[in-house]
Design a protein that fits this description.
The chain is mostly helical. The longest helix is centred in the middle third of the chain and has 25 residues. The radius of gyration is 18 Å and the shape is elongated. Keywords: Membrane, Transmembrane, Transmembrane helix.
């Protein structure tokens, strides 16, 4: 078991590989967050201006927390 962990943690990645990994993880995360936010817009009705933009973007970023709790971002 320790040999397997040592092999995983000793793997060296280039900066471009890190960026590619982040993109591969970030695209589905952003798509799921966008779909979730577009289907849960009740909290945006009473907001105006920049508050709507900030709350919308915050909902996209925080969608995992918002799906498991009854939190309304204001």
């Amino acid at each position: 078991m320790l040999a397997k962990l040592d092999r995983i943690f000793s793997y060296e990645m280039k900066v471009s590989e890190f960026i590619g990994t982040l993109i591969l993880i970030g695209i589905p995360y952003g798509l799921i967050g966008s779909v979730w936010t577009l289907t849960h817009t009740a909290h945006l009705k009473d907001m105006h201006g920049i508050d709507v933009v900030i709350s919308f973007l915050g909902s996209i970023v925080c969608w995992p927390v918002l799906t498991f709790s009854n939190v309304c971002m204001t």
